TrEMBL record, chain A:
PROSITE patterns for this protein: DNA_LIGASE_A1 (PS00697), DNA_LIGASE_A3 (PS50160)
Biological process, per Gene Ontology: cell division; DNA recombination; DNA repair; DNA replication
Entry keyword Amino-acid biosynthesis: no
SUPFAM superfamilies, A to Z: DNA ligase/mRNA capping enzyme, catalytic domain, Nucleic acid-binding proteins
GO molecular function: ATP binding; DNA binding; DNA ligase (ATP) activity; metal ion binding
ATP-dependent DNA ligase family profile domain ranges (all copies): 316-446
Family matches, as InterPro entries: ATP-dep_DNA_ligase, ATP_dep_DNA_lig_pp_1105_fam, DNA_ligase_ATP-dep_C, DNA_ligase_ATP-dep_cent, DNA_ligase_ATP-dep_CS, DNA_ligase_ATP-dep_N, DNA_ligase_N_sf, NA-bd_OB-fold
Record flagged with keyword DNA repair: yes
Entries under Pfam families matching the protein: DNA_ligase_A_C (PF04679), DNA_ligase_A_M (PF01068), DNA_ligase_A_N (PF04675)
Keywords tagged on the record: ATP-binding, Cell cycle, Cell division, DNA damage, DNA recombination, DNA repair, DNA replication, Ligase, Magnesium, Metal-binding, Nucleotide-binding
Protein known as: DNA ligase (ATP)
Cited PANTHER family: DNA LIGASE 1/3 FAMILY MEMBER, DNA LIGASE-RELATED
The EC number(s) this enzyme carries: 6.5.1.1
Amino acid sequence: MKAFATLLDRLVLTPSRNGKLKLLADYFRDTPDPDRGYGLAALAGVLDLKSVKPAMLRELVLERMDPVLFQYSYDYVGDLAETIALVWDGGEKDDSTDAEQPSLSEVVTRMNALGRTEVRSAVRDLLGHLDPSGRFAFLKLVTGSLRIGVSARLAKQALSDMSGHGDEEKPAHSRDVTEIETLWHGLEPPYEPLFAWLEGRGERPVLATPAIFHSVMLANPVEDGDLAKLDPADYAAEWKWDGIRIQMSSYGGTRKLYSRSGDDITGAFPDIVDAINFDGVIDGELLVGGTLRSNSPTRTFSDLQQRLNRKTVSGKMLEEYPAFVRAYDLLFEGDVDVRARSFLERRGRLGDIIDRAPHDRFDLSQLVPFSTWEELDRVRLAPPDPVIEGVMIKRRDSVYQAGRLKGPWFKWKRDPYNIDAVMLYAQRGHGKRSSYYSDFTFGVWTETPDGDQLVPVGKAYFGFTDAELEVLDKFVRDNTVERFGPVRAVKAEPDFGFVLEVAFEGIQRSTRHKSGVAMRFPRIARLRTDKLPRDADRLSTLTAMVEAREG
Amino acid sequence: MKPEALLHPTPAGLFCPIGRFHVDPVRPVERALITHGHSDHARAGHGRVLATRQTLDIMRIRYGEDFCQSEQAAAFGDEIEVDGVKVSFHPAGHVLGSAQIALEKDGLRIVVSGDYKRGVDPTCAPFEPVACDVFITEATFGLPVFHHPDPKHEIGKLLTSLKQFPERSHLIGAYALGKAQRVIRLIRDCGYDEPIFIHGALARLCDYYTSQGIELGDIRPATLEKKDPNAFKGAVVVGPPSAFQDRWARRFNEPLIAFASGWMMVRQRAKQGGVELPLVISDHCDWPELLETIGEIAPSEVWVTHGREEALVRWCELKNIPARPLHLVGYEDEGD
């Protein structure tokens, strides 16, 4: 447990992706089997471990200490697992040594072998044998609330990073993350064959079923001059829908739904998974609302968000936010790999499968006819549905190849929205940026009974160059009017302040923000030192954007 | 005599009406007895100051020659008569020169512990328990959550990180008096003998510690002739935490922020401060040490000053030890 607990302690406080990768790769390299495999499963969110209710943990700690002292402690720390981890030793000094602490695999094996009546005493015993950091890790695992900013994808990237190091006599090949993702869902914790292969000690693991995740093919954004070199006759276009990209994988009764990074999201979408009546692997867009065939509208991304990031889903959710899949592509037909066939041929086969699939849960993405790039540009800018965010352009003869190759597929998004806003607050960044004010809250004008005032509408922390950051940081330091902990309020008056041109991908209504609107993916496009705050946009401009979007 | 007649809280701090002096007053007074040199306990501008030689030296370093009108040095264990009150200074184990102050009159003895700790610290004399009727304890870390680990284990985390991230400058936040020197000394005791770079605010106090026989090894100013991003690659830099949020920190290569403090026990505290590598190293007692000390001294009454008074008072109540909070204001967490 020691190695895993130490890793968690570091990961929680390490903001940079590279820093996390280094910590993870070192952990996988230095920790023996089977512990590292259970650690990997925990980080990837697939560790199967008997859960413990917070109420039981509270009872266990109150057996040992005064409830008033516990309450003072809990009020101070604010997190139950951490409080219990810290107060467990009470007035005694922690005298545990690293050697006598149970390993992660011992903890997992023991917990999963317990009968219902044995849980309480086993948890008490384990807490007594772990040090504070081990207790914290253990409590986070058994309460299922391990939130440390590590995605399954990042853990797999770390596996790729740790591979290829073998010993000097027998250097191992470095393994690409897409290859690891392909294998991933066919393997079980503690992943000993996977580690053996990564370290060059074993063969590539053989998978029993094709109902696993296959790395997805990605598109490049269209950049200036890209299309001029290409013949429109070689390409097909389809709408780019504003949902989330998913992969459906079904074979021999095993039906799975994966996010585009390979996270298993089957549990959150029983409405889709139960409706799958085909074998194969399909690439598509997950959306909420009605299919084209059911003649009811596709709903917005904010509706879809109600269904995301949940482990389970209530009946009411299923009814109010029905999900469906708009199919884009076919990777396997039954157990036959069709990825090497052309896009148009794959699409033909996909059309047959979707025709026979339940009409309320599946439809086929429509092709957008066009003969010139100018024509496609016009339809792109005036899409027939507000949930469309642009077009996809795919070579008619393109094979399905994992990764982001330049040439076969392009995405041509609707242009971003732009507004001029005024900097209101700034906060210091993290890591490399910890000495810079690099997170900016910005606002626009709105009419109030006390006259025009600036209301915050969003926050952006990228989009600017290093040189621009120097300018922004200096402005913050020179014009701070108030401090709230790490946050500084800056001078923002009609004739003095900093105007930022903010670009964003979408906008929707929000009850969480005072302004009533929330932007998607806002970033600072330009510093408008040529403008005064009085020239900045008004909230009514933003609400008009929301209304236009809602149609 | 009631203990309150010998010593009681006033807005300026603890006051002894018989001896006509204050202990660690937070505003200028005629006569002050000072436990240690942290700025919330030792302020400039008093008339007469009685403190240990080292505390007086530290006050002079921090405030200049005219930090008070007249000074008197107290040696550990010596009995000094102040207007009929017997006063003596005893090691507190907090920082260099830190002392507990015992006051005695007509057989009643009160010990003002100031800030103190029980853990091993090679940069100051260890805490000595003094029998007394009233023990006045701090409670900076007076909650059952605080268990300070072995500081060498914490330095181990730093040395591991230096190996894992050899390209990054490791910036350790440590308060200028006491913690900084203790951290440097701990790093040395763990076998690290590369140069350690320090912020200018630490220079004079580090020099003073060295002059008092506390070896700190090769320490150099963290200054540059011209900007060179590789200058402090993989180096250990010690400075006051506030400096890391300042433009000063930009001279370092991908700085990794560490902070040596007892507060680092709580993850959220570390996270809010932007700390990547928390080092739980404290110059105060943790919860078990507070309980151990009260048990060992066995005073008939405990008064609790700054920190989380309510939890320690609650514990005393549960143990049938009369206790009360003093609600003194003006003591911050400097020094940890």
